[in-house]
Amino acid sequence: MNIRSFDQKLGKLLRALSVLSLSALFVLLIGNVFFRFVPIFSFGWFDEIVELMFAYFVFYGAAALWREKEHFQVYFIPSKLKGKWRKAIDTMIDVINIAFLSMLFYYGLDLTIRAADWTPIFKLPKRIWYSCIPISSLLMLIYSTFSLYSRFKKEA
Question: Which residue, 38, 132, 136, 138, has fewest beta-carbon neighbours within 10 Å?
Fold first, then answer.
């Protein structure tokens, strides 16, 4: 398997995780509202699953958007610049991204490793909830590093 096909499969996986998490959130919220008015079934475990789905949706969704460069950007100043200044601003943005994502990965991994608590209903380790932070930040860090590398490679 070459790197391009791996990247495409990773992109599909990230999108699938995001869509699945958002769909599960939607179904759970509808179910919770319905079963409040029609008390047939108890949703005592509702908070645990919503927390998990929301975390996965946000972090894996962010990684999917980052991979395709479709995330929100405020590009007012760089869009007004041309030439060397534009490249300098873009490089500075990449360096800041790499610094932030490195810290997010480090502290997210630290949180995941140190987490010792368990969920009250399902008795699952909270590490499952927190694992999306270092995984998604590492993926975004790799894509940001590659972006910076390709920017310097174009100039050479």
Answer: 38
